[in-house]
Amino acid sequence: MKNIIVTGGAGFIGSNFVHHVFRERPDWTITVYDALTYAGNRKNIEGLDPERVKFIHANICDEAAIDAAVAECDAIVHFAAESHNDNSLHSPYPFIETNIIGTYRILEAVRKHGKRLHHVSTDEVYGDLELDDPAKFTPDTPYNPSSPYSSSKASSDLLVRAWVRSFGVQATISNCSNNYGPYQHVEKFIPRQITEVLLGRKPKLYGAGENVRDWIHTEDHSSGVLTILEKGSIGETYLIGADGEKNNKEVVELMLELMGKDAKDYDHVSDRPGHDMRYAIDATRLQNELGWRPKYTDFRAGLADTVAWYTDNRSWWEPLKAETEAKYKELGR
Ligand code: NAD
Ligand code: TDX
Q1: d(CA 36, CA 59)
Q2: Contact residues for 226 (Cβ-Cβ < 8 A; gap 6+)
Q3: pTM of the entire structure?
Q4: Between vectors from CA 52 to CA 55 and to CA 47, what angle results, nearest 5°?
Q5: Is 58 left (phi over 0), alpha (psi -120 to 50) or beta?
Q6: Cys staple from 102: which of 98, 145, 162, 255, with CB 3.0 to 4.6 Å?
Q7: What is the number of structural domains in the chain?
Q8: First CA to last CA across the chain, in angstroms?
Q9: Does the beta carbon of 203 sit less than 6 angstroms from any atom of ligand 1?
Q10: DSSP string, 29-60
Q11: For residue 60, what is the domain's CATH number?
Q12: Catalytic choice (124, 128, 219, 220)
């Protein structure tokens, strides 16, 4: 596999994956296929050798454009999505179009051209867990999504499964937990809070702050996806997680401490409607069957690096901040 397309490769996780593959597979070429929505940024993939990293500015819903791109590659890794729950509560339609129709277009293109597909999805398709539930999500957990975002991702996963079974498409799926690291949009929890503090304001916790997320460094997500792309069994679903469960209050307090502030100096704001309580991943299949292991398991160190990245890259995030906070103001959060 030498020539891959990365959809959404100018977004947070996609661009980290592009950097990862660029480093780890020096004989591969990578075509980033991205519509550059509000969440995409060409700066995320700046500085990479243009002989090895190409860019196509197009929408995955554009049938002719995706068909032409897929015809030229060996495999496609599909990250492109509308990815933010709060936006999906405010205006769901783009989630239906990109996440469902866009994935359908990709499936039809890989079917026509007989190409390998890896579809990137989320643990949110499984719904949520109670705080005291000993269970974690496994590949056999029934789908039970809560939000327009997670239900559109669940729909896309089901399309992939159907295209594998009905048409013999060569696809794998991964469902990963909450990522953190560089290049994450300031609408998301960790970058929002870091940048609020850098601007002299207070972090904003939804509700009581007791909701639990299973944090994984985006580098570990990248190595998981690359492992599945190279070694995964066709038709299989793999869960990617690094045993990183923390509640939101703990994350904010650690972040404030790392930034030299009073750990209790945050505000509680109104809760997200339908707010999932807890996500937790059991990554046994990926570990046992494909031998994958996470490397960035020290959350304190990973969060400190992330704080340092946002501190050092103010010109990257500052232009996004006003519009993002205006959207939150409308939502009352
Ligand atoms: P992101 O919002 O940062 O980036 C999305 C990228 O896709 C952007 O570059 C955007 O321009 C592009 N894009 C959006 N719509 C497009 C379209 N119609 N055509 C072409 N390009 C389009 O998202 P992210 O957080 O990096 O998430 C990437 C993928 O990983 C998504 O599929 C998401 O569901 C999944 N995921 C995310 C997380 C997380 O914690 N962020 C966790 C698990 C899975
Ligand atoms: O300001 C905030 N305050 C707050 O308390 C924001 C933006 C969020 N939160 C809470 C809500 C969640 O419990 O923090 C937690 C994380 O929120 P998000 O960053 O919005 O992520 P989440 O809704 O958990 O979804 C993320 O993980 C799964 C990604 O955005 C999805 O793309 C991925 O599929």
Answers
A1: 9
A2: 17, 20, 21, 24, 25
A3: 0.99
A4: 75
A5: beta
A6: 98
A7: 1
A8: 45
A9: no
A10: EEEEEE---TT--GGGGTTS-TTTEEEEE--T
A11: 3.40.50.720
A12: 124
